[in-house]
Amino acid sequence: MKTLLTLATAAMLAVAAPPAISLAQAQPAPAAATVPDYTADDARAVLNARLAALKAVIALTPQQEPLWAAVEAAIRDIVRDAANRRAQRFAATPPAHFLDVLGAIADGEAARGRDLRRFVDAAKPLVNALTDAQRRRLPAFLGMTDHAGPAQASGQLWLFEEEEG
Questions:
Q1: DSSP string covering 49-75, please?
Q2: pTM score, two decimals?
Q3: Predicted pLDDT of residue 22
Q4: What whole-number distance in Å separates Cα of residue 163 and Cα of residue 114?
Q5: Where are the domains positioned within the chain?
Q6: Most distant CA pair in the chain, distance
Q7: How far apart are CA 11 and CA 54, in angstroms?
């Protein structure tokens, strides 16, 4: 009798278990936490913080302070242009050919080259007025690597971060 009761119980569990298992599987997984979109206000806040930090890292003297405005304006223009290039790239029709992709890369590199030249020209008077200690702090803060080997790609500098989006 015990054997029959055990077999009956096992049979009932075998019949009842699959619906319970499939019901548990049918429940939707809890929604993953979503990250809010990165907005233009967020980008502005990050840029403002980076500019304030860069200025603090340099620790400008009162004599050097007037030279900062040109550097800040160049950085703001470069970041704005990089964001505009990203927006244009996203709005453009998809490339039809691999040469279209290479052309877009060439155009982006040329634009970043012009922007880097604009930064160098704007920063030169300030950098020339800095002490060696102040000058030493700049490359790492800008995202530059300091090692032998191939030249660093311009896209690795935070000046162009908005372009990569």
A1: HHHHHHHHHHT--TTTGGGHHHHHHHH
A2: 0.72
A3: 52
A4: 14
A5: 40-164
A6: 101
A7: 73
Chunked mean pLDDT (size 10), the chain, 165 residues:
47 50 57 74 92 94 97 95 90 92 91 94 97 91 75 75 73
* Residue whose tokens read 């300030």: 126
Sequence-separated (6 or more) residues with CB below 8 Å from residue 125: 67, 70
Let me know the angle formed at the C-alpha of 68 by 67 and 71, rounded to the nearest 5 degrees.
105
Amino acid, single-letter form, for residue 141: F
**Which of 111, 114, 113, 127 has the alpha carbon at shortest distance from 71?**
127
Contact between 109 and 47 (Cβ < 8 Å) = no
DSSP state at residue 156 = G
Structure-token match 């599987």, residue found = 25
Rounded Cα distance between 141 and 50, Å, is 9
| C-alpha separations of 145 from 43, 52, 140, 149 in Å | 24, 22, 7, 10
User: How far does Cα 84 stand from its chain's mean position?
Assistant: 15
